[in-house]
Write the structure tokens for this entry.
Amino acid sequence: MVRLVIFLTVLAGCFEDRYLCSSDADCNLGEAGRCEIDGLCTVFDKVCDTERRYSPHAGDRADQCFDDHTAIANLCAAGQPPPPPDGCAQDVCTALPACCTSGWSEACVQQAQLRCAISCDTRIAITATNQNRSVIELWEYDWNGSSWRATQHTDREGLLAWVAPAPGELEPRLAGIEVGGASVLVGGALLPAFTDRTYQAITSVDFDRDGRDTIAIAFTSDIARIEVRKLDSSAVREFPTTVAFGLSWGDTDRDAFPDGVAGIGTRYTLLDNIDDASHVRALSGTTSSNVGGGPTTGSPSLRKVDWIDIDGDRTLDLAVFGNQVRVHANADRLNDTPLVAVDCDPLVLNAMCSMTDQPLNSFSGTVLPSVDAQLLFVSTFPARHIYELAVLPGAQIGRVTVADDCPTCLPIIAAVARDLDGDHKLDFIGLDEKLGLYVGLAADGFRIKQQPIALRPTRFFNVLPSVTGAPSP
């Protein structure tokens, strides 16, 4: 029996046939009924972009496709639902349609900084670990437009990350694990956690295209898994993905739902967001690839995966940094075969190093898209060289420039890209083994300069940055 709250509006003899629901159980008038955030029922309909259509008795929305497009107050923060294509978002989505069809990812934030009349502050949450995770330090580096501030977080443990603002809010939320491991903290909210698992990533994503405040958490226990949580309820779904490291969201299969990518060891897996047999969204990790090149002592096999339209076809592609630098690009959907594989220092395109050289080289880096070109910044380990790779249509490397050459300096092992000086060009931000901070401004020809941040005594094996921001005055 459907629980119905009936609103009868009598206007000149007219009645509004509008029923409100409070849970999915109230919506049984069609296939896979779901109670939406507006209190109206939808049913599964493959024709709609969100695969949901309002059921009968939904007032003036009855039989319309459900639409989760939401005006975004803060275009500087990733992990939000797709916005309607107007204003700044229209310029971004003309360049990268996935931003308005599947979700507002970090690639969309970068495009907004390039194309829109906005300036963002920069906030970097840092999780730094030694090789056996016996030392874990959590830091926050903030750029206010003129100076950096470094803050160590001892109020959390194991993991620190930025997630999207709450719906309708402006400020991003800092997430982590409560000391003792009993709760996951997301801003001021406490979510139940489990002490039998190692948390690897906390991200925001409009996973179901329902517009609800949703968190995806990657962890390892018996195997690697990803759980999807609704913050406005106790609903939790768990997917055995076998990968958890570096979870991030983009679009692998070119449909209207955000897809993920994560790794473990040398392997990284494309996590397709699929419609399961019950018409509930799920993750499928059937496509995997491996970084080659052999292990490098003192360096993890996989450091980072970035999303970028590398070949200029207006779809999201992948750049992978670790034992190799690998680029995956394809118009229809991403597959396990890279178009570009870089394995040597000095960089040699699509060539394997000799067995003598293989253990000596690994790579970190970041993508730096611009309005008229795509750049990869690649930092080598253990000797520090930083290369700027210009990518031509077809994902071919057209130019390799040495941006920094200091073999005796600490290697930069993590990097992000943000516009620091408000010139609508992305800048390079790097972190070394002791959490030293380096910046290369586009306006300065990407000349790498160390920032006044005190070095830590520990040389870290892995440094994981999570970046966000908010509009600056």
Helices lie at 88-95, 98-101, 106-115.
